[in-house]
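Training component of the fellowship. As part of building independent skills, the fellow (R.M.) carried out the full modelling exercise for a liganded target. The chosen ligand was adenosine-5'-triphosphate. The inputs are recorded below so that the supervisory panel can assess the work.
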Amino acid sequence: RAKTSAEIRQAFLDYFRANDHEIVPSSSLVPTNDPTLLFTNAGMVQFKETFLGHERRPYSRAASAQRCVRAGGKHNDLENVGYTARHHTFFEMLGNFSFGDYFKREAIQYAWEFLTEVLQLPPQRLWVTVFEEDDEAANIWLEEIGVAPERFARIGAHDNFWAMGDTGPCGPCSEIFYDHGPEVAGGPPGSAQADGDRFVEIWNLVFMQYDRDEHGRLSALPRPCVDTGMGLERIAAVVQGMHNNFEIDLFHHLVHSAARVAGSADLSNNSLRVIADHIRACAFLIVDGVFPGNEGRGYVLRRIIRRAIRHGYKLGIEEAFFYRLVSPLVEKMGAAYPALEQGRAQAERILKQEEERFRETLEQGLKLLEGDLRRLESQTIPGATIFKLYDTYGFPVDLTGDIARERGLGLDMPGFEQAMAAQRERARAASAFKVDYKETGDFEGHTEFTGYDHLQDQGLVTALYAEGRRRNHLEAG
Ligand code: ATP
Ligand code: MG
Ligand code: MG
Ligand code: MG
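Fellow's submitted model of the complex:
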């Protein structure tokens, strides 16, 4: 019998405990003392100050299973969910860390031993990349570990050089991939087809060895550090012989439960998978104190909830259903996360309320959209439609984007921006007579949302800011 996700998590922590690592509990999804970060998106987040040397801990080696959300900010996988076999909004990152203790050699040895001996993965299935200039790591892999050169690649800075920010600790990284075999589409790391689900990145080993100053100059850190991260769901898929994360034990129960609620028989239905993904993010965020709202973290949560509800509607579910998946989630993950069990009733109540509220406008909004789409002459949803859905029916722009993508349509974002600008003008004019108009939105995490280069993301940025400045009609009503 293959190990369950819970057993893999435990095996990981046991292995590193046996190698003198302190086991540190997962921190909250809401980072403490870091307004620049929307959500905890990696295991290293709770150790940031230690890596920077600002905080000392009574241990120099640690390991954790960290709950993470990547649904906004620098790491945003929301648009990948339902489209790849390996991305979630919420996932668990297994990590081991060295604070000026061991470095490349031990980090690589530990990772290799854990994968090939503890989990018994066949070495011929594992591919390794290093930063192109990192001869030291290359030698360890090729000469000491004995990885075959044909499954080894040197990669540029885009994928294999990690930095905490524009300045500060940074360094090369080395990634380990698993080859799911020729029946899955995708090419080896570094190739043009690398973005498929065949060669899946399972573990990233970051070697923090430099400090970068404001001129971009690198100087060696006196005590180099190690930060690693391995996705639990991805490694579970490998161990359980599945090519898709949504087929692992953890998701099985959730997908089944969603299918039961939907009266659906096809377990590989994409909407069921999206819902199974989203219930984890939503329930855990609520338990960590994030509530649906119109700004910052709360708005990201609201967007995820509304996407899930729309998928439920698509499956033909006719009443509030999303909250009913909290219990199946608690059954699977409550043992590892007791706070989830404690927060169950609250999560159910909030999700139910949010769904009942949105259902009223969802159906009308979808009807409006269908009508507009019938009249459509181009392959693009007009800005005016996106705005109407957003403003009157509470459709976040990415929700409309999700529908557009399913149908191979584009979004007229400049048109949407224009409609938004016009709306802002009207609000400004009207606000001259109102005292409660919120001129400056306090948008948590806004520093992360700047600098996006995709038009769609820029649109979202504007939408998010705007939403922070005015109250959604649903809130007001
Ligand atoms: P990818 O290139 O596949 O998007 P990444 O390079 O963005 O992954 P890292 O930031 O290196 O990921 O995170 C460390 C590990 O966490 C990854 O190797 C992977 O196993 C896991 N991981 C990252 N993002 C996700 C996600 N959205 N869902 C599930 N696991 C993830
Ligand atoms: Mg990624
Ligand atoms: Mg990657
Ligand atoms: Mg990576």
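The panel noted the following from the submitted structure. Residues 276 and 374 are 32 Å apart (CA to CA). DSSP finds 18 helices and eleven strands in the chain.
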